[in-house]
Structures
1.
Amino acid sequence: MGPVSTPEEATPQARERHAELTQILDEARWRYHVMDAPTIADAEFDRLMVELVELEERYAGLRTPDSPSQQVGGPPSATFAPVTHPARMLSLDNAFSREEVQRWWDRAVRELGAEAITRSQLLCELKVDGLAIDLVYEDGRLARAATRGDGTTGEDVTANIRTVRSIPHTLTGDGPIPSVVEIRGEVFLSVEEFTKVNEHLVEQGKAPFANPRNSAAGSLRQKDPRVTASRNLGFVAHGIGVVEGIELDRLSQAYDLLEGWGVPTSPHRRLVDSLDQVWDYIDHFGEHRHSVEHELDGVVLKLDSRSVQDQLGTTSRAPRWAIAYKYPPEEVTTKLLDIRVAVGRTGRVTPYAVMEPVLVAGSTVARATLHNAGEVERKGVLIGDTVVLRKAGDVIPEVVGPVAELRDGTERRFVMATHCPSCGTELRPEKEGDADLRCPNQRSCPDQLRDRLFHLASRQALDIESLGERAADALLSAGLLVDEGDLFDLTAEDLVRAEFFTTKDGNLSANGTKLLANLEQAKTRPFAKFLVALSIRHVGKGVAPDLAAAFGNIEALRAASEEELAAVDGIGATLAAAVVEWFAEPWRAAIVDKWLAAGCVMADAPSEEQWPQTLAGLSIVVTGSLPGWTRDQLTEAIVARGGKSSSSVSKKTDFVVVGESAGSKYDKAVALRRPMLDADGFAVLLEDGPDAVADRVRVGED
C-alpha cells in the first residue's frame, strides 16, 4: 500500500462551492423524501453529489456529519409519530457503468480474497421505485411499521401498512418463527394501479401524482388509513435487519424463509456466481424493464453470505457489500410549450419547462426543471422546440436539449424574469458572478416564507404538528403574518379571520384550537430546536446542538463574534460567518425579539432533576445507533451531565461511543486513537464518570 495523501486545506472558493452544493442537495433531499415533490433530476442529484464528495476528499475539514454525503434519505415528516429503527436503515452506493461495478467487486476481493467473495455468491435484484419500509414482527405478529426517514428515525405508519393486502399481519408456515425479525422492503404502486389512481384524481379535479414512487409515498402517508386501503399498494421484501431466535447464514436463505412465512419477495431475483452472470441479468431487464409489474430504476447487487457482509461492513450511509447499478435514463421527444420560473425556499429562482404531456419511463411528464438561465442557454433550447426529454434514474424528468432539425422559425428565446413570480420584487444574484438569480425579499416573499414556516414546524425543528402547508397558506392568505416572527403572537381573534381556522358559524375550528395549543407547547422546545427553526444558513440538526451547548441561550449566541463561534469544535469559519450575518440583518434579529417577547424560552435552562456532573469538561462523540436512545436524547443526556456532545472526532475528543452501524467517525477515532466505548460502557460513563470506564475503553484497533 502506498503512502496516504494528506488532504489540502480548503480554499475560500472550495468552501463556498461546498456550501452551495450542500444547500442544493439538502433541499432536493427534503423535497424528495419529505414533501414527495422532487425538484431536480436524479442524474443531476448524483452529479452534484459526486462533485461534493470529490471536494470533501480533496480538502480537509469540509466533510461534517451534516454533509449530504453522510446522510441517508431525509428527515421524517411531522405528520406521523417518530419511530427509532432497531437497526439503522442504510442507503446504497450507485454505479453508472460496468467499470464502477468492477471497482466495487475488486475492492471486495482485495479486502477478503477472491475465494471468499466467489464462495459468497451474488444476489441480483431489481431496484424497486417505491417507498422504503421497515416492518418489525414480534413473536410472529406485526408490531410496527415505519418509513426509512433519516435511516435512524422514521415515521410510524403501522395503521396504514395494515391495509396493504400483501403484507401479513401474522407470520405463518412450518418453519421456525423468530421472536423478533425486522423485515425491510419497498411499498410500491404497480404501473397499472398508478394509471387508475391518476385517472380517478383527474376525475375529481385534483392534480395527478408525478410518478408511481410519489403515488406510493402519498398513498401510504394518508392520515386516514381508509384512503391508503383504497389504493392497491404492493410490497416486496429486500432485506433483513435485526433477527432473534434463528440463525441466518445467507440473505438468500432469509428470502426463502420470508416466502415460507407469507411475506412477498421478488420473483425476479437471481443468485449468480460471477460478474458475467450479473451482466446477463442487467442486460435482460434493461431490455424488458417495462414487462415488470412495478417501475424500476436499476439493479441491486448484494454479496449473499452474511459473514462476508459483516466483514465488509458499512460506511456512514451505505453497506460495502452491496451496490445499485442504475440504467441509463430513457429518452423521448416532446414539444416545449413554455419556460416559466418558480421561487424556492432560499429565494433561488429556477426556470422550468412546460411541455406537451408525454409518457416516459412509465409515467406522464409535463414539467421539468431547467436550473437557471445559464443552463437554458447552455442547452440551447427555444420555446416551441421539439426537445429530448429523459427520466434520469427513471424518476425525475430532465430536458436534454433541442431537436434543432425540426425548427420551423416560430421558436423564440427564453427571457429570464426580472421580478419574482411570487412577490414581484426585482431579482438579482446574491453576489457578483453567481449563475442563479434570487428574490432578495427574503422576509415576506410568500413562497419563501411558506417554505420557512413549513420547515420550522418540522419534527427536526419545533414540531408544530398542525402547521402544515395548508395552514401556512391560510395564515399568509389572510395577512396574519409579515414573517415568522409574528407566529407566536397569533390569537384566536386572529385565526378566525382565516376561513381554514373557522367553523361555518364563524367560530374557531378544531384546526385553530390545535394550532394555538401546538404553538404554546413549542415555546419550550430545546434551544437547539429553535436554532434549526430559525433557518440560519448551514445550521441544521447536526450542528445546532454544538452551538446550543457552547452558548446556552440565544442572547449569548447573538453576542458571539465570528472568532468565538469558529472556536467551537465542529463549527468552523463558514458557519460562524453565516451565524453573524444572520443576526446582522435587523428583521431576522427582530424574529428572535418577537419570539422571546411571546414567551419562547430559547435557552437550555437547568434541568429540574440535577444530574451529577459526571461528564464535566468532556467532549463526547456518538457514532451509530444505541438501543433505547434517540439522537436528541443522547445529546441531552451528555449536556445535562456537564459534557459536550460533539458532531466530529478530533484529537480533543475524550470519548467516542460506538453503536450499531457506526460510520466514518469510527474510522477517524481509530486513526486518531481516541478512547472508544460501547453502549454498556456509555451507560457506566454517564452514571459514574471517566474513571469507572478505564477497563472498558478501546483505543485504535486494540
2.
Amino acid sequence: MSGICLAAGAAEPGATAAAMLAGIARHGQVTEVLAPAPGVALASARHARLPGDKPLKDGAEGVTVAVDGEIFDDGGPLEDAAAAIAELYHADRMDRLAWLNGSFAAILVDPAMKRIVLATDRMGSRTLFVWRHGRHLAVASRLDALLADERVPKRLSVQGLTELLSYQRTVSDHTQYADIRAMPAARIWCVEGESWKERETRRPVWRAPEFDQAEGALRLAEGISRAVRRRTADSARHGLLLSGGLDARWVLAAARAAGHEVSCLTLASHDNLEVGIARRCAQMANMPFRYIENRPHGLSAHFDAAARASDGLFTAPFNLFGALPDIARSHDVLLSGHGLDYTLRGYYLPCAMVRLAGSLTRLPKLRAIPDGKPKTVSDSLRVGLNAHALQAVLSPRARAGWDERRVGAMALALSSADIEDPYNAWDAFVLHCLGRHTAYNDFVAMNTVIAHRAIAFDPDILDLYYAMKPAWRASGRMAHAAMKSLAPDLMALPDANSGLSANNGFAKQAVLMFMRGAARRVGLSARPAPPADATWTHGSWSNLHELLRRDAFFVERLRGLAENTALLDSGLFDPQGLARIVEEHLAGHTSHRKLLLELLTISSWLARHSYSEVVDDG
C-alpha cells in the first residue's frame, strides 16, 4: 500500500527509481520521484488518506527522508513520520529509531555529507532490499521492485533456497539471490562514498518479571487498550479482521472500550461456525459486521499475484489476497489480532502434545527440552517442512551440506537475541526478521494493497511479553485473565477453535476437548457434520490439502513441477522425487501441502524473474 526506493550511481537515476516505483505503486496512490543529491533519486508511493509516510525534504539542512510505514505516539499515527526521523538524525540519535512505536523502514539522503542512511524498525516488520557494488546502490521496499533495476544481478543463492525450503523464510539478511540483502530488524546501514557501515541498534532481551501473573494481566489489558486507541485515533476508515477465535476478539473489545468504531470483516468459504461466532461478537460490541464469501476454488486465480507480493520469500498468501482490493474500496486500514498468539500465548514454544480425535493438539504446558541450541530448535520448530519429503525432492548436489546450511542459519538467527532461558530460543527464531515470518505473510502481502496495523507489536504489549516467563506464555493464563477483564461478555461466547466457551482457560479447554473426543469415540456424542465441500472448513481458512488435489490450476501446476525448468535448471531438484511427492499428495496417500505450496511459490517467482546462475554461497 506504500513503498520507497532509491537509485544511486545509475546513468539515469531518476528513470531507474521510476522503474522500481512502478513495481510498488498502485492505482490512486500519490507518487513522487525526487533528486535529493547528484546521481541519487528517491521515489515513494503512498495512500492519499494516510499522509504519515509523505517524503520530507528538510529545507534548512537539505536532508531528504522517505518512510515506508507508520510511526505512532500516544495521540495516534504521526502526521509526518519522516520529520520525526529527520529530528533524530540531526540530533545524532538514529539509534533511537528502534525505540519508536510503529512498523516502518526509512531511507535518508544527506547531500552535504554525501551520505545515505537505511533503517528498519525494532521488529523488522518492514524491510528494505539492498544491492550494492562500489558506488552503485539500489534499494527498494519490495524485492520485485528492486529487480526492475537492470544493474542488479539475479544469481540464485543455494543458502537462500536452503532456508526457504527448511523454514519457509530466509534468515538474517539473506534472500533467494546471492547479491541482494534484506535488512534485518533494528539495523542502520550507512554509505558515504565507497565507505559502508552497519550497526545493530536494539536486540530482543527477555528479562525476569517484576510482577506476578495477576498484576501482569491488568497491565496487559491496559496495554492493549492503549495500543488499539493509538491505531484507531486518526480519520482513516478502520476495519478489523475478525475471526471466531480470541485474539481479534481482544482487539474488538479494546476498540469498544476506546469508543472507536471498527468495521468487522470475516472471510470464509461459507457462512460457517466461525462466521456465526464472529457475527455474534460484532453484534455484542455494537460494531458493523460484514461476511465476505471466499470460495476456495476461486483462490488459485490470485496465486501468482500473491507470490509476487510475498517477494518470493514465503509461501504465497493467496487465501486472503484476492479479497483485499474489494476491502480497500471501503477501508484504509485493517487491524488484526495477529501476533498475540505466538507472543503472549506462546504458540510456537515447545509444548506437550496429545492426540485428540485423530489430530495432535497442543497442551498449554512446556515439555522438557535438552537445550536451546540451534540444532535442537531447528529439528523441532513447528514452522519447518517435513524433512523426509524435502530430502526426496532435492538433488544430490542440494543435499550435500544441507544440514550444515540449515543449522547454520538457525545459529545466525539466534545470535541476534540475548537468550538465557533455552525456551526463549524458539521465540527468538519466530520473531527474527518478523516481516518474513511464515505466520505473518498474509499481512506483509496485505501492505501492497491496504495498510495493516498489528496490535501485538506495540511497545506497551511487546515489552510485557519480553517480561513474561516462558511457562506463563505457554499456559496462556495471564493473557486469558487479561481478555476476561477487558471483555467478560465477549469471552462468554464460544471459541471457534474449540467450540467451547472462551471463559474456560486453555488448560480446562484441553481437558474438555479430550473428554468430548472420548465421548465421540464411544458414540455418546455426535461428531460435527463435515462441510458440504471437501475444500471448505468450519473456520476462516480453506482445506488446502484438498484444494491442491481438486483445483484444476493447482493440479496442472503440481504435475508440471517434475518438468519445471525454473526449478530443474538450478540443479537443486530431483525430477523423480518431485513427481513422486506430487503423486503421493494427489492420490491422497499423505499430505505434502506445505512443501508443495513452497515449491509452487518458488517456481512462480522464478518463472517471472528467472536467474543467471546458481551460487553455492553456504
